[in-house]
Amino acid sequence: MMSEDEAVPDPSPQPVPDPVTDVEWPGISVVMPVLDEERYLAQAVHRVLAQDYPGPIEVVMALGPSKDRTDEVAARLVGSDPRVRTVANPSGRTPCGLNAALAASRYPVVLRVDGHGMLCEGYARRAVELLRSTGAANVGGIMAAEGETTFERAVAAAMTSPLGVGAARFHTGGQAGPAETVYLGVFRRQWLTRLGGYDEAFVRAQDWQLNYRIRQAGGLIWFDPLLRVSYRPRPDLRTLARQYRDYGRWRRVVMRVHPGSSGVRYLAPPAALVAVLLGTMLGIMGIRSGNLWGFLVPGAYAGGVTVGALVIRRGLSWKATAALPLVLATMHGSWGLGFLTSPRSIVPRAPANSTRSGRPGI
Three-state SS across 136-155? Predict the structure, then answer.
């Protein structure tokens, strides 16, 4: 029989400490993969350090093998502020750099930003407040494309319109609430640790893929349009085409590895590309016979993007507006081509019992 002096175990479960909620202003680790960012890196880091956040902030830059003066810029930033440091990312691949920076950082909140991304004022404070109020695993907002040259302004207009990139809220805006994905993101570290960080097999689309895994594991992704990160578009048609080809290629990879992420909307660019090419071929074949009906499809597409450019120009100069149809066609066609030609060898299909986690132990 138990004596009166013996302690009775408390059967109620003990609360699990939450480092984000239990500390007034938890520390933030800013992780930044960096490659060939000489042009914007200093400004991007200064925007982070200028945040009006009451808690501690550290910046960990993962330096890839840049071909410009990025390493010199990074060295000056490290020398000018003890909150900034670097780690090596020999492969230069974004998910590898993110995981290296995660492993070298220490705070319970992880803010992911690129070397050309400019945080808006109050970004860090609002993100932490949202993590607390929503209980989300990741919060984020809008990829606010802002061009400096005429061509970049045309790309920015296309990137912030449903006609250019579809109706994703992190491109076009919308109401705050649960989302499939957000731009970049501010995470509870415990979720990144639990899932092993970023999947290093995903050279592109690693953010979307990580958010998909978080949602599959029961976590909440929260979108807030007030969380804005300015983004600098590609400076010319060649680099824009390569960017969107890679987007399409890696979207196909995500759909192969995670069949539940498939959506009809992703088939629109490849379907449009096939229709335009097929119509052009039929039109050329019918020139001798005078049967030119095949040209109706590419003609209709050209007319559609031209009218669309006039609708979404939003104060652009006429020179930038004139570039918009070509920009839109490049984005659509390159995305569709990447999707259609995406090789299965890029990322092997994961075993049935795999969570496609990234590097364990982060």
Answer: CCEEEEEEEECCCCHHHHHH
Over 231-262, what HEC string results?
ECCCCCHHHHHHHHHHHHHHHHHHHHHCHHHC
In the chain, what are the domains? 28-235 (3.90.550.10), 259-341 (no CATH)
- 3-state SS assignment for residue 290: coil
Alpha-carbon distance of 109 to 195, in angstroms, equals 15
For residues 25 and 128, is the Cβ–Cβ distance under 8 A?
Answer: yes
* Residue type at 154 in one-letter notation: A
Question: Global pTM?
Answer: 0.82
Question: Crossing angle of helices 94-104/206-216, nearest 10°?
Answer: 60
> Are the C-beta atoms of 210 and 198 separated by less than 8 Å?
yes
* Sole residue written with tokens 């093998």: 65
Give per-residue pLDDT as tens, 120-174: 999 999 999 999 999 999 999 998 888 889 999 999 888 888 787 666 676 667 7
Of 7, 28, 21, 39, nearest to 116 by C-alpha is: 39
The distance between the two most distant Cα atoms of the chain, rounded to a whole number of Å, is: 105
Distance CA 347, CA 250 (A): 9
Q: Which two tokens stand for residue 319?
A: 């020179």
